[in-house]
Design brief:
The complex is a heterodimer. By secondary structure, chain A is mostly beta strands. Chain A is built from no helices and eleven strands. In chain A, strands 2, 4, 5, 6, 9, 10 and 11 form a seven-stranded mixed β-sheet that branches. In chain A, strands 1-3-8-7 form a four-stranded antiparallel β-sheet, with no helix packed on it. The chains are: A mainly beta, B mainly beta. Chains A and B meet through β5 and β10 of A and β7 and β8 of B.
């Protein structure tokens, strides 16, 4: 079964750090771009970051640039999101999602992890 | 404030047809495909429509998508109680090198 299983969410204090993980199975992990998308409580979806299959190219939303780092370990089929200098505005459910390339050349996020809650509060 | 604009809510009775709109600009919808996601509260989003109007395997054909210029829409015909959920449109934003989403539309089946 193709799936992404997430872990790492927690309650942390402002200014602290946290690392999220996303373990892939059922597909060739290293062949896909993987993304992080977050959803603040009661709000919509917001893209956070992406990483290319080999890990050499990454992009970030302006709201997290310089604080978050996306990385991957293809030998362990695992994606990471290192989050530093966390603030209350980072409180959200974080999802990892696979980017799949369709026949017409377009990409869509087709497989999503179950989500993990990050709460930043004192 | 989301980059893509959706109505916050929509509703219909069982069997009816409902449409949800999504408006963007030339740098996002105008130059990229639109995708639609369904999210039941407390669960992860599920891909419903990709590439403007293509249904992944397992998605019923009473769901359809379309795009014209800088707008897109999702149509659900033969509305069922299990369609009650939040629906999000999404597309690639070239300037951001990232995904942009609509604010979501809460669909209520009356």
């Amino acid at each position: 079964e193709v799936q992404l299983v997430q872990s790492g969410g927690a309650l942390v204090q402002p200014g602290e750090s946290l690392r999220l993980s996303c373990a892939a199975s059922g597909f060739t992990f290293s062949s896909y771009w993987i993304h992080w998308v977050r959803q603040a409580p009661g709000k919509g979806l917001a893209w956070v970051s992406r990483i290319e299959g080999a890990g050499s190219t990454t992009n970030y939303a302006d709201s997290v640039k310089g604080r978050f780092t996306i990385s991957r370990d293809n030998a362990k089929n695992t994606l990471f999101l290192q989050m530093n200098s966390l603030s209350a505005e980072d409180t959200a459910v974080y999802y990892c999602a696979r980017s799949f390339r369709y026949f017409d050349g377009t990409y869509a996020l087709d497989i999503w992890g179950q989500g993990t809650l990050v709460t930043v509060s004192s | 404030q989301s980059v893509l604009t959706q109505p916050p809510s929509a509703s219909g009775t069982p069997g009816q047809r409902v449409t949800i709109s999504c408006s963007g600009s030339s740098s996002n919808i105008g130059s990229n495909s639109v995708h639609w996601y369904q999210q039941v509260p407390g669960t992860a989003p599920k891909l419903l429509i990709h590439s403007n109007n293509q249904r992944p395997s397992g998605v019923p054909d009473r769901l359809s998508g379309s795009k014209s210029g800088t707008s897109a829409s999702l149509a659900i015909s033969g509305l069922q109680s299990e369609d009650e959920a939040d629906y999000y449109c999404a597309t690639w934003e070239d300037s951001l090198k990232g995904w942009v989403f609509g604010g979501g539309t809460k669909l209520t089946v009356l």
